[in-house]
Amino acid sequence: MRVSLLTEIAPENKLLSRIASEARNAKTAFIAVSFIQREGLKYFFESIKGMLNKGKQVTIYTSGYLRITEPNALEDLLKLTKSYNSLKVYFNPDDRFHSKFFLFEKPNKTYSLFLGSSNISLGGLAEIGELNVHISGKISDQIYRDLKIAIDNLRKNRRFKKIDRDVISQYKTQFRKQRKRERRGTGARPVYHKPSLPPLPTLPVYVVVDEFTSEEMRKIKEKHPRWKDYVDYMSSLNGLKKGDPFLLIRNIRGRPKMFNVAQFIEYDRIEGIGKIAHIEPYFKRDRPLKNLAKKLRLSEKKLLERKKLDNIEIAILRRNFKIDI
Fold first, then answer.
1. Do the domain assignments include residue 191?
2. Percent with pLDDT over 90 in the chain
3. CB 219 within 8 A of CB 270
4. Helix (H) or strand (E) holding 205
5. What CATH number should be reported for the domain holding residue 119?
6. Residue 173 pLDDT > 80
7. Nearest 5°: phi and psi at 98?
8. Cα distance between residue 144 and residue 138, in whole Å
9. What are the tens digits of pLDDT across the range 4-14?
10. Is residue 194 part of a domain?
11. 66 and 27 together in one domain
């Protein structure tokens, strides 16, 4: 049995990236979290979408504990259950439910378990202070056998209902009442502040920098003399495989901002520089920002003001380069 600690102060150990990696060859997944919020679900879904596309069974248990789960997140999950027959979602609107674990059953009678403090929310997946343990081993391990007992008890708990329109409608009424009490200052639940989250692991964005010292450039050229582009390292780089495409935004001093789709080749760590990626362009010529703005029907100024590029990235790949994600 192997155990490793995942914290948000160690970027290479980001929970989403590790979950996405373990889900790639998983046979089934069982997920239990206290609450789910829409923004966090958007990112988490990308990490398990491959399983669902292959028809692998994914089961999710969550609750209305403290009325933190968002009704629109449940509505999104209901839509997903209609798109993916192998996805099952169960919801307990009332009971105190505080479990948080992500279990993946793997080939050769092995498993991968993430156990800790993260719910499926922006805070749970990105906020500093979350702490999770990654455990992997054989299904003969005692911890796996104990967890299966806990899962069986969850399945037998009749307060967990398979989500449908009626279940969501009833919870929505409870959710609205809680929000009204909070606005009047009588609600017990603290205000929840959403932190920022890095771009989707399936479509990371890297900004080219041209701020290396002469000595750093010498080290880079000595190690990889054929590199054409150098990019900021982000934790989601760990989720990329050789040949995977991603959107590259170039912002080199003295040149207009440019973009293209790049292909990930490898990454390496150079002392004094950190991890930097070796990439290759998908297209021979870069495309200026004004062309991007035109394609997306946005003004260039408005495009530059955007701090989060998630929707823009997706639009570029779908409309401009015909890449489906």
1. no
2. 39
3. yes
4. strand 205-208
5. 3.30.870.10
6. yes
7. -125, 10
8. 8
9. 777 655 444 57
10. no
11. yes
14's tokens? 């980001």
Domain shared by 40 and 173, yes or no: yes
| CA gap 196, 192 in Å, rounded | 13
Residues 6+ apart with CB under 8 A from 28: 56, 57, 58, 59, 104, 105
pLDDT given for residue 3 in this prediction: 84
Q: How far is it, in rounded angstroms, from Cα 297 to Cα 117?
A: 41
Q: Is the same domain home to 225 and 84?
A: no
- The predicted pLDDT at position 213 comes to 72
d(CA 159, CA 49): 28
Is the model's pLDDT at 271 over the cut of 70?
no
Lowest mean pLDDT among 64-78, 199-213, 278-292: 199-213
Q: Does residue 296 belong to any structural domain of this protein?
A: yes
Q: What is the pTM of this model?
A: 0.60
Q: Looking at the domain assignment, is residue 314 inside a domain?
A: yes
Q: State the pLDDT confidence band at 292, using cuts at 50, 70 and 90.
A: low
Whether residues 65 and 131 fall in one domain? yes
**Confidence grade of residue 237 (pLDDT, cut at 50, 70, 90):** low
Q: Give 116's Cβ-side CA count (13 Å radius).
A: 21
Asked if residues 235 and 198 have their Cβ atoms less than 8 Å apart, the reply is yes
Say which DSSP state 34 is in. S
> In the chain, how many domains are there?
2
Q: Which amino acid is at 231?
A: V
* Beta-bridge partners for 207: 249
pLDDT at 323 over 50: no
Q: Note whether 219 and 267 are same-domain residues.
A: yes
Domain span at 311: 205-320
